[in-house]
Amino acid sequence: MTDVQFRNLSKSFGQHKILEDINLDIKTGEFVVLVGPSGCGKSTLLRMLAGLETITSGDLLIGGTRANDLPPQKRNIAMVFQSYALFPHLKASENIGFGPKIRGENRAAIDDKVKKASSVLNLFSYLDRYPRQLSGGQRQRVAMGRAIVREPSVFLFDEPLSNLDAQLRVQMRVEIKALHQRLKSTIVYVTHDQIEAMTMADRIVVMDRGRIQQVGQPLELYDRPANKFVASFIGSPSMSFVSGALKTADAKSWFETTSGGRLALPGQAASGSDTVEAGIRPEHFVIGAAEDAIAIKVDVVEPTGSETHVYGSVGDDAVRAVFRDRLQVKPGERLPVTVDPRNIHLFDKATGLPL
Predict the structure, then answer these.
(1) H-assigned helices in the chain
(2) Closest C-alpha among 129, 125, 95 to residue 110
(3) What is the mean pLDDT of the chain?
(4) Which residues contact 142 (CB under 8 A, 6 or more apart)?
């Protein structure tokens, strides 16, 4: 296990920049998740760490040693791919022990490593099966076992759960997190699913268009996003944004929507700007009419059993609200809601930066 450091790292294909000025420190034993939309550069960054992509400029340090020109086999890194990448003609035990075998280790040592990895991943019942005889989750565990027997300094996961169904993804999230806690290993994990990031990571790295937007603990990013992009990407359902202006009178400040509603602000002085957006998480809408309230024009109602999801609009802005109550509200109705001032995020509409 070891530290990983990116220093002013950039990657280009011809004139097209994929990554630009990446600076990031990953500590020994840390579980770091790279998250962002498709094409943001997160998988390219992981492949550069693995040695599968060249570095255009900047430095990659592994354990304090510059690794830009080290071949993959000398980086002591194991990678688990989205596609599992198992040999179809080899049994699960042979797939797990393939790395030690080609390195020339003796049969007893290989068997011992396969046994230990199988114990960690609960794979004993499947060792004599071929990949075609395994479920998606079992194949992914075999792929993880193959990585474990290498005893790497860093584990890399490239969207390993994207091929699994929803229920199995939840199960595998728990297994990967438990694996990290048992091995105390350094893990760099790539996903576009921010729920995976929120539930698994020690720290999340949010990326967009080849740049890091924010790095922090999951709840830090959720509660204090660095910009509108992070605010909209982290959280499921995502944050809603309502356009309006900041107003002040009689030592009070409020946010006034373009449709005429208003929301009280927590005592900060209003700038008078009319290019502001209020970001509101779906669970922070509270039903009730008051002086400081807005109205959601209801379009769709989704009862989920434990919650009711309401899709609608405030003026021209689409919003989504989540309530614990079982609401009797119909499309076309107007639903009055308030928001605790402490739960309102204000962003400059032009720059996306917080006010």
Answers:
(1) 42-50, 92-96, 98-102, 107-121, 136-148, 166-183, 194-200, 218-223, 228-233
(2) 95
(3) 91
(4) 84, 86, 92, 95, 96, 123, 126, 131, 134
Give the position of tokens 């499947």.
Answer: 126
Helices 166-183 and 107-121: crossing angle in degrees, nearest 10, is: 120
Q: Amino acid letter at 128?
A: D
CB 282 within 8 Å of CB 343: no
Cβ count near 84 (within 10 Å): 20
As given in the structure block, the two tokens for residue 278 are: 């209020």
Beta carbons within 10 angstroms of residue 10's beta carbon? 15
3-state secondary structure of 263: strand
Q: For residue 88, name the pLDDT band (cuts at 50, 70, 90).
A: very high
pTM for the model stands at 0.90
How crowded is residue 8: how many other Cβ atoms within 10 Å of its Cβ?
11
In DSSP terms, 149 is beta-bridged to none
Q: Which residues does residue 279 pair with via DSSP β-bridges, in sequence order?
A: 241, 345
Task: Tell me how far apart the alpha carbons of residues 133 and 272 are, in angstroms, rounded to a whole number.
Answer: 65
Cβ atoms of 18 and 11 within 8 Å: the answer is yes
Q: Which residue has the tokens 């006034």?
A: 256
Rounded to whole angstroms, how far apart are CA atoms 311 and 331? Answer: 9
Is residue 192 a contact partner of residue 201, using CB atoms and an 8 Å limit?
no
Q: How many CB atoms lie within 10 A of CB 288?
A: 10
Residues with Cβ within 8 Å of residue 27, at least 6 apart in sequence: 3, 186
Supply the pLDDT for residue 268: 61
For residue 81, name the pLDDT band (cuts at 50, 70, 90): confident
96: number of Cβ within 10 Å = 29
What are the residues whose beta carbons fall under 8 Å from the beta carbon of 191, sequence distance 6 or more?
Answer: 33, 34, 35, 159, 161, 162, 197
Contact 47, 2 (CB under 8 A): no
CB atoms within 10 A of CB 313: 16
Decide which of 347 and 102 is more confident. 347
Q: Residues 337, 263: contact at Cβ < 8 Å?
A: no
